[in-house]
Amino acid sequence: MFQLSELENDALIEIFNIGVGHAAASMSAIVNEAVRMSVPSISFIARAEAARLLGAGEAVPERICGVSQHYAGAFETEAILMFPEDKSLEIVRLMVGEAVPLKELTEMEQEAMCEIGNIMLNSCVGTLANIFQRELHGSLPQYHVGTSDEILTATAGSSQADTVVLMLHIDFVLEKHQIHGYVAFVLAISALHDLKDQINLYITRAIGQS
């Protein structure tokens, strides 16, 4: 399986933590509550292993709410934000307030989750693009509900055999809530090597400036 050196891994976690920091500031303004986000770990794993990590290996697979966007430019990837379905409703309720009935809440869920996905994914990818000094262009967000295996299969496209999933474990902490989610980047092997090259260029520039 594809691996980064310890220095490359630490650099990528640092970059993603900058990205989710920007996302947290945007989310705080939406939910009117202090939001802290962090990326404690990342891993490069096969798609099937990613599905198991997200609960598809359970006797009754957990339903996941996901938002995906396709990015192309410095490297090509399908980015997916995923939360357990019950947690996604919890986030939507924080956005729209306690007074909204459950039926209306579920009707608003798709639009609200696409907005959250757009904020989160663009913050992560935008930070990558800025730090790598390269362009990355994203598609409109798409909403998915199903098991993690169904969502990863739907978004990986036809080249599933030649893809690796970069998993970001995200701690999403609000004043009265703690929600764990994931951002998955589905990357072809060639895109992984492009990503590794960009990380090393970033490290070289950082060392040169210090």
User: Radius of gyration, Cα only, in angstroms?
Assistant: 17 Å
Tally of strands: 7
- Helix-residue proportion: 40-55%
CATH class: Alpha Beta
Q: Enumerate the spans where pLDDT stays under 50 for 5 or more consecutive residues.
A: none
CATH architecture: 3-Layer(aba) Sandwich
Protein name: Chemotaxis protein CheC
GO biological process, one term: chemotaxis
Keywords: Chemotaxis
Describe it.
By secondary structure, the chain is of the alpha+beta class. It has one domain: 3-Layer(aba) Sandwich (Chemotaxis protein chec), CATH 3.40.1550. Helix content is 52%, strand content 30%. It has six helices and seven strands; from the N terminus they run H-E-H-E-E-H-H-E-E-H-E-E-H. The protein has helices spanning 6-31, 47-56, 85-96, 102-132, 148-156, 189-209, and strands at residues 35-45, 63-73, 77-84, 136-138, 142-147, 163-174, 178-188. Strands 1, 2, 3, 4, 5, 6 and 7 form a seven-stranded antiparallel beta sheet that branches. Helix 1 (6-31) packs across helix 4 (102-132) and helix 3 (85-96) packs across helix 4. The longest helix has 31 residues, at 102-132. It is globular. It starts with 5 loop residues before the first helix and ends with a helix. The relative contact order is 0.22. The mean pLDDT is 85.
